[in-house]
Amino acid sequence: MPKVVFITHAGARHQVDAAAGESLMRAAVDNGVPGIDADCGGMCACATCHVFVEPDWVARLAAPSQQEEEMLNFTAERRETSRLACQIQIVDALDGLTVLMPEGQH
After folding, report:
1. What is the pLDDT of residue 76?
2. 0.90 exceeded by the pTM?
3. Which domains does the chain possess?
């Protein structure tokens, strides 16, 4: 089972087990990671699961859809590595994936 790491804006690390096939958002919610609210339940409709993917991991992820890009435009702290955790599907190759959460999500 892949392990993923969420780092809050304050620097707290939360390493969780993520089942292959589930979303990064679901892994966070199921493990009580603070800062991932997932208000829309993973429907790519709210951006409350906004994360910054560590640069080394960006190329390993599928490109964001147009819908995800549009939702990211509503975030206050968008970066080149911004993604919605609900749109990142966990696969075994993502073992060790590390993401940071924006200051506005704490």
Report:
1. 85
2. yes
3. 3-100 (3.10.20.30)
